[in-house]
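Follow-up to my earlier ticket, as requested here are the two runs.
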Amino acid sequence: MSLSVSAQERISVSHSLEEVIDLAMENSIDAMVARHSFLGSYWQYRTYRAQFLPKFSLDGTLPSFDRSLVSLQDPNTGEYKYVQNYAMRNSLGLNVIQNIGLTGGTVSLSSGLDRLDQYAPQHGVYYNSSPISLILNQPIGAFNRLKWDKKIEPVRYELAKFNFLEARESIINYAVTLFFNQLVAQQNLEMARVNHASTDTLFRISKRRFELGAITHSDLLQLELRLLNEGIAINENQLQLNLAQARLRSYLGYNERVDITLRVPEDVPELNISLDSAYRLTMDNTSFAYRQKVSRLEAEKAVAQAKAEHNPQFNLYARFGLNQVAKDLAGAYRNPLDQETVRLGISVPIFDGGVSKGRVKMSLSQQDVVEATLEKDAIDRRQDIYLKVMQFNNQGMQCGISRRADEVSAERYRISTEQFAEGKLSVLELNTAQSERNSAHNRLITELHNYWSYYYSIQRMTLYDFLKEQNISAEFDKITE
């Protein structure tokens, strides 16, 4: 949702906390970044899967013409002579290559045709066909990258899904903060205006009472000073509201001429989160488990690669194909001759100054560090969720008490202003009642902020909606369309 307005008009909108969250999830820059970050991971996963699909290619040279002098060596005398090369070559080949994930090798199938037109010293046409050629290229004992990709990339893609969900929950947490920052400023401004209007009325009454000698000049001056301070407070709170509203407006994607008014959340729902459920969800239903699994697999991959580089390396190359040469196209495919090639290469490290051995030791040491770090992360994770659940389960009571305190302080201030107008209360006592009313109302907003901040923090850490009693999910298929 985005609003655009002309330079002559302004638009006022009123939002609840839920509406602000929905707008942030749809329009914020963070939401767009989260989507594109996930799409990057999705295409990385698609690229990984494409490695195991056959790859087709068509290669050719159409044409390759050469008319030049080239040096040739006489095989009998060893003498070099320059002869004229005057020929044109055309070639075309179709290739299919398939990676073998289990072994890390490749197998390819190809078919090609080559035509040679010789113009000097005499004219002639020759066709060289290779109807079929099967090639196996298989490393033995080498590090198998495809095997490890097959282990890691699916887990990494699942991790990307949970990272996306948690990024969306982080957007909610930030939107809650912006909401209550503006709500506090909005309530402070409203309270400052109400206080100023009330004090102005009481000041005018007090001036008449001073003229009658009912109050001292000091009391009148104290009330006037309070009126002036409340006027200053209005200006300060208006500035704070403008700043808070600008941040929220920008995050929600609104035009700068849109004025946002926020509604105070109603009574918080009665909800008590089970610590055991929160433990289970935060360990198994979030990116945490996948992040740990990826870290372990990456450490194991590094050890396997270091060990493979330390051991002897072999490479098997085998080729079987058919081939024929003729002066006409049909003859090039008649009675083709078979051709076979088998080659085994070997590379044995003899002495490298202990470099490869050192790499193996380093990778094993790093693997131990990763395990220790992951164990500590699990402990910290359980501790964090424990603290947040304890804080949240206590926060409902805090909100109830604060709301009642806000009602009591508001009623006390109303009675105090009436008593002051009747001359039954001093300025000092009135100031105390007003200060207590302001403090109680601010405390209520703060407790509401804490409640929803704790709740959405737990929701982010568990990816579970405890109010609706369901897992947080997203339609990933639609995102990747």
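Run two:
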Amino acid sequence: MNILDYLATEFATFEEKPFNPVDSAVLSQFCMVRVEGIAPPLRERASFKRLGTVVDNLLSSVKRPVRFIDLLRAERYADMFTGLAPSLVKENLLALAASPRFRDVTVKDCLSLFDADRQTQFAAMAFVHKKEFAYVGFRGTDASLTGWREDFNMAYDAPVPAQEHAVRYLEAVAPRLPKRLVVGGHSKGGNLALYASLRAAPSVQDRIERVYTHDGPGFKAGMFSPEDWHRLEGRIHRTVPHDSIVGMLMESHTPPLVVCSTERGINEHSPFTWEVAGDDFQYLDDLSDNAKFTDALVSEWLARYSDEEAAAIVDALFKAVEASGAQNATEVFFGGAKTATMLAEAAKNIDAASRDTLLAALGSLAEIAARLMAQGLAGKLAPKPKQRPSQHPRPRP
């Protein structure tokens, strides 16, 4: 089963079965629906007055919370869905509207910010179940180059605008939501959910029952203190797929739960590929060797550069992406081997200093990868001491 199968077969109410990790993943994918103009906007403008960003959806005339069925607008479908799998995001909306578990959940306080000049892409919304609880969901990265640029900026800049907006948003909506709060998101949305929860005022933080981060990247080293993490101890639920790449980036305090996926490699990043067992995901014992290799590779590579050097590399990378003429960022960064070829070709059309910076960084990455691969091969070929088999082997789910 996947999350769409779950929506089609789980008929229990939230009173009969409490909110669970699959419910969070479902709503995190709804956050990839552009509901501006058809769902009620955030009204607390004071929190965002100082922003130069134009917040178009604050001007929406919609006032009352809406249900998922109210959002089925075929005339909006052409540009309503974003993310890695827009067609599945659409299916997710249809399934939510039909689901007896979710059909009476209401959507409110939608906020969307997009500013190419400030390299900002942010969206969030609140989902309310009666007067019982609310899920505050944050959108992951859309298909824009601006959204992906902000993601890369996280490696050397802290906080990025979307993270600051996430805190403002959570603190702005919390007073008008039920006391019980759940916060979550997928990918960048998971990072924003956790950042907002860690930085929120104690009066808000104390109401948070759980923070879900679904394959969300971590944070720049040293961004949070042990005391910061301690305040949310036991309330962070972190899931990553078997071949996780995105969710293993940078520093994370909470060990992940490893989810079984029907795909492999970067395609596992989509929660639509994650296997569901009952009211939870199907979990594995550990990350794949590929995930561990990528984690070691990227960690060592990033450690070689200062913040200033990393900023120059990211700037050069996006000059090459723009020179390639690409409009859809997901096709670039999820393009596999084609991405390297495309960037190498596009690099010929950027200024010499940026080209040298990018090629040197890619060369460094290749050098580390070759060394780690050689070390891994040597380890596999080395004779291992005999071990007694376990008398009680742990069954794999």
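The only thing I checked on run two: The CA atoms of residues 86 and 114 lie 19 Å apart. Let me know what else you need.
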